[in-house]
Amino acid sequence: MSDTYEPRTVETAAQDFWKRTHAFEVREDASKPKFYCLSMLPYPSGALHMGHVRNYTIGDVISRFQRMQGRNVLQPMGWDAFGLPAENAAIKHNTAPAKWTRSNIEHMRGQFARMGFAYDWSREFATCDPDYYVHEQRMFVRLFEKGLAYRKNSVVNWDPVDQTVLANEQVIDGRGWRTGALVEKREIPQWFLKITDYAQELLDGLDTLPGWPDAVKTMQRNWIGRSEGLEIRFDVADSDVSLTVFTTRPDTLMGATYVAVAAEHPLAMQAAKDNAKLAEFIETCRQGGTSEAELETQEKRGMDTGLEVVHPLTGETLPIWVANFVLMGYGTGAVMAVPGHDERDHEFAQQYGLPIKMVVVDAGVVDALRELQHDLAAGVGADPLRNALRGTHTDAYDANTAVRVVESFEHRVLNEAAFTEYGTLVNSGDFDGLDFQGAFDAIAAKLEADGRGARKVNWRLRDWGVSRQRYWGCPIPIVYCPTCDAVPVPEDQLPVVLPEDVAFTGVKSPIKADPEWRKTTCPKCGGPAERETDTFDTFMESSWYYARYTSPGAATQVDGRADYWLPVDQYIGGIEHAILHLLYFRFYHKLLRDAGLVTSDEPATRLLCQGMVVADTFYREQDDGSRHWFNPAEVAVQRDEKGHVTGAVLAADGRPVRIGGTEKMSKSKNNGVDPQVMIDKYGADTVRLFSMFAAPPEQSLEWNEAGVEGMARFLRRFWREVATHVAQPDHPEVDPAALDGAQKDLRRQLHETIRKVGDDYGRRQSFNTAIAALMELLNHVGKFGDMSDQGRAVRHEVLQTMVLLLNPITPHTSHALWQLLGHAETLIEDQPWPAVDEDALKRDAVTLAVQVNGKLRGTVEVAVDAPREDIERLAQDLPGVQAFTEGKTVRKVIVVPGKIVNIVVG
RNA sequence: GCCGAAGUGGCGGAACUGGUAGACGCGACGGACUCAAAAUCCGUUUCUGGAAACAGAGUGGGGGUUCGAUUCCCCCCUUCGGCACCA
């Protein structure tokens, strides 16, 4: 073993040992507590990137730490192999998606091993393996039979030039990314899973997950969006049809001045039949993409249909408008508009000159009304606003003030902005004077009695559309028969295998282009039929992979082994998955449970969402105004003597480049740092150490090579310290009773560090502070020059313990140093975690901060058990304190034991 | 537009339950070693004033609660993540 740190040698040796001994392959073992640590499975894009390094290092640190805590740790890895990038690569490089994907997996598996991740590779799979997706197809058939999978029309982004469906990310500023054509909305039949049947359970389940970040739970709650309201039927005037709207604000019903329907709403279509202008408008509503962000930010446009509805309370007629912000797919495709009390309706009404009514006022207005109308003591009268404004008053001054309050409020609502808060009803006939809940109940009761309305719980959450018009995905196991309609493929005919040896040159799916592949016979009637050529959303595969890892080789989706391992004890992945993936993941777990395959209600008990990896960006403006981005590796940053950044130049030509800020590593900004280069240069442990040290896990991490060098320096110093120590003569055991002051101090710091590191790895998941504590300890042991017997003994205890404490983060280095310290080659994860010696933590004296009026004026060293009076006296006697208390009265002295003394003077 | 985060020295960050703001690392500066460089080691490093002692200011901005606020409350600004077909 060398005296200097050689990462490559050390890492190869440790990795060989782990591989040779199958160190991380695990089985169910009832004698040990289990720990299932799972990192989100990667898309095999071709090369390890820094986001992977970070995600998987966090998972590996937790896994190794938990194993050192005596748990039976499962940490698996696999590949989210279906998806759009393989199709794009196929077009670009003229290679089949399957071949491209599988060769990427080969390469990345090697990179993962080079990082030293402690995976049980015996459980590996790729989601594009028919052995994997056959179970997904079976589950879908089961859901179809249960009525949880169904088909309906829904809208997609349509590129009219390529004649293809586009993903939202392929729509840029309303145009197709490849063709530049204006994207249109098009309705096509698609398959859906009834996640809304589970909406309440998905909402309630969040309360059973204390180990999930509050931000994620809040986002999921808002996404599910439970709201209680009223469904109200409006009859269309001079006709026998009606339309239904849902509102959470029935208290504002008297302020409804129009209703708005989606462009695809049957009433709109009907009105457009003999109205060419309206038909044209509806046509323009088809333009643009389908994403919510785009719909919500587009200019709000509408047109009168000429049709009218009857207000269910007043009998007045209200116009029906078509509006581009109302969508057929969401809710009923129609909304009642209350411009006085809804921002969007207000904006729309002002734009088109539609009437605005004020029917809710705030407490200040109510007070003013009371003043104006003495007979309102028992509540607000029939038309209090109008009555009040023309009423007679005895006190002219008060009346004027009150009138001004009412008028200015009304002016604001009618002309400036909607009043959207809850308040008291006015201008609402019988409902005047009621508050939100009173008005809700009264109006609901009235409409229910009239058969025009019903209370309803509405969900923002929509059913999960799982159809994709793409080739590289799991085929949907359905056959279309002219007589039997949609028929699921029988179990014994599954899997429906996706052909992999295909030419993928254009935009069209090869299985859609191939007339032979789809030909089949109907499983029901035996007649000629056609297969579904859509494939599943790739979220389908990533929604249940965690369960499959527990049951490798099982003939069913999972088997009894799942009961041992599930739920996942620690799940780790990017915050960008906070809603979609994590909601589908929870939903699918409930589907597995209801199919009798798992017994828990939630798939994962603890969740860690790590931040992004970011880096500086550099560019030069091109002649055409576009930007050419340079990789940080090609650029030299210039600084002044104080360290301020003054500029940057391209290393190749020495000419300046512009600094574009710190952004998420991406191809488009060319600011990605290749982990492979870093591993080759510094070793995996240094890369792991930096990615855990540079930022807390949930924050974004800025890659900075100088920082990486600092980590390499730390590991070299640690190595040297151990090597120097083992060259010393043998030492006796530590005898706590025989230690002098400095030896005691070092030993106390060691045990404080053991306590902190364990807490930071386990409870806090604050790895950066754990590393900082270990660095501090190394700084101290480096200055500890005591070569006596007990000095060497304490140093040995410190260094050997540090090897164990660092092992989760830098396992290769620890593996080597453990041997350097005289142990046989072994798996450090099987060593017990160091125990804190409570006696070593004891102190005799503590330092208290002394403040005068909250400002620090000195410190005082006192015995741990010093009485309060002594502390107060010592603090007040400090010269630095007296300078500020002299000539003033001490009003109060606050003593927080072990922390602070605050002397309040005045 | 809606939902969720974040903002602290030149930089990344620490301060865990309201109690000494800036731990740890990077960078910068000074020094030692060296023929020299690299590496390594030692020291300084929030800002302003001051030779120093020391004083004042300071955690995105504005207000509030408290003996005491990076931490709690209200308003605002900026940046980032998600918005259902990127994964």
From TrEMBL:
Top-rank lineage group of the source organism: Bacteria
Residue ranges of domain Leucyl-tRNA synthetase editing in the record: 221-364
Major localization listed first in the record, in broad terms: cytoplasm
UniProt keyword terms in alphabetical order: Aminoacyl-tRNA synthetase, ATP-binding, Cytoplasm, Ligase, Nucleotide-binding, Protein biosynthesis
Binding site for ATP: K667
Leading EC class: ligase
Catalysis performed (reactions): tRNA(Leu) + L-leucine + ATP = L-leucyl-tRNA(Leu) + AMP + diphosphate
Domain Methionyl/Leucyl tRNA synthetase: residue ranges: 39-171
The protein's name: Leucine--tRNA ligase
Organism: Oleiagrimonas soli
